[in-house]
UniProtKB/TrEMBL annotation:
Residues 258-389 form the L,D-TPase catalytic domain. Pathway: Cell wall biogenesis; peptidoglycan biosynthesis. It comes from Streptomyces sannanensis. The active site is at H338, C357. InterPro entries: Big_10, LD-transpeptidase, LD_TPept_cat_dom, Transpep_catalytic_dom. Keywords: Acyltransferase, Cell shape, Cell wall biogenesis/degradation, Peptidoglycan synthesis, Transferase. This is Ig-like domain-containing protein. PANTHER family: L,D-TRANSPEPTIDASE (PTHR30582), L,D-TRANSPEPTIDASE YCIB-RELATED (PTHR30582:SF2).
Length: 414
């Protein structure tokens, strides 16, 4: 009896453990089956294979190929025509060309994205860095970086300009640039010069020969206009093997409007300022054998006192006056508006006796501030306009002084 409970207990215990063990095995198998099903399902595969495929796609190289000319490290590179940036199997998205000081070269990507061209020349003797990026059809980027150095020119030129930087000038003042070498590539040189005005007005350049370029608007400048001239000539090939070496900005202001009209027949000069006649002055113009040019002339220089020698303008020894007072140049060929102390006072307003100049009554030494010549000199600035009419002479040539106003706008711009 005592053994039976023990035996029964042992048997019962074994049977209970057997049932729990079987349940555990079944449960474990079920869990294993669930896990196996979960691991083999679509959701499980997508969770693992998706990121891997994405990473593979991200690391695939761009098909776009960037090409740059000149080659990396190249020297003596021409300042025009040598820089080319292209993209194959893609489109350019970023192009930067700058020198070591951070000055950028402007340019534009073609509409199809296949190429980039600079819109300006490069400076001479300058190192440039180029950074270009292109994207393929999938948006993947490919980049290329190079550097190169432009040539050092053996022959150079500059432009001597007028008016001076910071000056205030009259309404007739053009921008006039005289080059130290004859220019045979005028388009390249003119493209490197910009003239702008505030308030804005169309401004065009005109070449006189191959060494002078003037700029002006269609009509006289408006009083108060601010004009800016940018000379970006450094690196411009003005003629084969001759390069500009000048980079400068000039600014000047247009003062009040003063236009004076000389009537050679009436022997008078009417001075008009800002639309109002402020004075009429008696004058003497060129004698019948040495008449004064007609036309619009611009005061280009002023001298309190200067020497006038007829031999310098083709009149031999007819005159040599060492102390001509209040002289203002109107042409390169020797036309001046100046004080005259040697003619009788009755000459002014009644006769023409000069060698082509316009004379106003004055005193020797120019000390009398009330004399007409002194008054006009003090009332005038460089760039003021003097118009001569009714003289028995031809119209002055546009390039004889700063006198391009004697050309129509159509002639000026053609």
């Amino acid at each position: 009896m005592n053994g039976q409970p023990i035996s029964g207990a042992s048997a019962g215990g074994i049977r209970r453990r057997g049932r729990r063990g079987l349940q555990a095995v079944v449960l474990g198998a079920a869990l294993l089956l669930v896990t196996a099903c979960g691991g083999g399902g679509d959701s499980g595969d997508s969770g693992k294979a998706g990121p891997a495929a994405s990473r593979a796609a991200d690391t695939k190289a761009s098909e776009a190929v960037v090409s740059i000319e000149p080659k990396n490290g190249e020297v003596d590179v021409p300042t025009t025509g040598a820089l080319r940036i292209t993209a194959d199997q893609g489109k350019l998205s970023t192009v930067t060309v700058e020198d070591t000081k951070g000055n950028r070269i402007q340019g534009a990507v073609a509409a199809d994205g296949a190429g980039w061209q600079p819109s300006q020349h490069l400076a001479a003797a300058t190192k440039y860095k180029v950074h270009a990026v292109a994207k393929d059809a999938e948006g993947r980027e490919s980049a290329k970086d190079i550097s190169f150095t432009t040539l050092v020119p053996k022959n150079t030129f500059v432009g001597h300009y007028t008016p001076e930087d910071g000056s205030t000038v009259g309404v007739g003042m053009p921008v006039s640039i005289n080059f130290t070498r004859g220019i045979t590539r005028p388009e390249a040189v003119e493209k490197a010069i910009t003239v702008t005005a505030d308030p804005a007005v169309p401004i065009e350049g005109h070449w006189f020969g191959n060494d002078r370029l003037d700029f002006r608007p269609e009509k006289y400048w408006a009083a108060g206009t601010k004009v800016t001239v940018t000379l970006n000539l450094d690196g411009v090939e003005g003629r084969p093997g001759v390069y500009g070496k000048q980079k400068k900005t000039i600014q000047f202001t247009i003062g009040r409007r003063q236009v004076s009209t000389v009537d050679a027949r009436a022997h008078t000069m009417q001075v008009e300022r800002d639309g109002t006649v402020i004075k009429t002055v008696p004058i003497t113009a060129g004698a019948p054998a040495t008449t004064t040019y007609n036309g619009q002339m611009v005061i280009s220089e002023k001298f309190k006192v200067t020497r006038m020698n007829g031999a310098t303008v083709g009149f031999g020894g007819e005159y040599d006056i060492e102390d001509v007072p209040h002289a203002m140049r109107l042409s390169n060929s020797g036309t001046f508006l100046h004080g005259n102390y040697w003619a009788s006072s009755g000459t002014f307003g009644s006769a023409n006796v000069s060698h082509g100049c316009v004379g106003l009554r004055d005193v020797r030494g120019g000390w009398d501030k009330k004399a007409p010549a002194a008054w006009f000199y003090d009332s005038s600035i460089i760039g003021d306009v003097v118009v001569v009419k009714n003289s028995k002479d031809k119209q002055i040539q546009p390039d004889n002084g700063l006198n391009g106003w004697n050309m129509s706008w159509a002639e000026w711009t053609k």
